[in-house]
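Field reference: sequence -> structure
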Amino acid sequence: EVLDFVRQCPEVSFILDHIGKPGIKDGLTEPWKTHIREMVALPNVLCKLSGVTTAADHENWTREQLRPYIGHVIGSFGLDRNGGDWPVAELAGKYTDWLEVLDWATAGCTAEEKRKLFRDNGIKAYRL
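Structure field:
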């Protein structure tokens, strides 16, 4: 239903909150991966790369557990259509823990790509 709604409003920008809340705690990737690929085809959708730890076990998540999910949204949406919102991440850990995970998961990115991910995309999406 969400995909149909977004398709009906191509002039409206949509932000997929918390990478669509995949079932990280249970190790689920489908149908989430398929839905992400469908969202990517809609140019008016951005992905909020945050709150990922809250979809995992709040007390026992690891960065290795999160990396495939982070990698999928970055690989799918690219670095121009991903951004963050950090307060929710603190439900399952400290802000600095999340930043360390994201920095580690994007180790292959250039400084310019990281600037987009950590700053510029949010400024653009929220018109700041």
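Note: The radius of gyration is 14 Å.
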